[in-house]
Amino acid sequence: MTTETKDRAFKGRQYRQQIMDKLSVETSTAETFKPGKDKDSYLKVLDENLEKLKSMIDDMKEKSINLEKDVKTEFEKETKKIQLRYDEAKSRLNDIRQSGGESWTELHEGVLTAWRDLAKGIKSAISKF
Questions:
Q1: Count of domains in the chain?
Q2: Integer angstrom CA distances of residue 77 from 23, 57, 119, 124
C-alpha cells in the first residue's frame, strides 16, 4: 500500500467518524426533543435539525467526487435512498405543520421513524467512504 493510498484511507476514516459524530448529535436531538405545548418551537428545532442533516448529505455528495468509480456508483445508489428518506422526514414535518389543534403531538412518532430511517441511510452511505 502506497503512502498516498494510506493517507486517503486515513482521511476517509476521519471523515466517516466526523459524519457519524455529527449524525449522532443531530439524531439524538430528534429523539429527545418531545412535542411540548408550542408547535412552532417544536417545528423550528426539527426544521433546523433536518437542514443540518441535509447539509451533511450535500457535503457527502460533494466529497463523493473523489471516490473510485465502483464505490461512487454504490454511493450514488445510497444517496437516492437517502433523498427519499429526507423527503419522507420533510413530509412528516409538513403533516405536523398542517395539523390542527393538539393533534400534532400525536404525529411525533411518525417524525421519529422518518428520522431514524434517514439516519440509517446516511450511516449506510457514509460507510462507502
A1: 1
A2: 20, 13, 16, 11
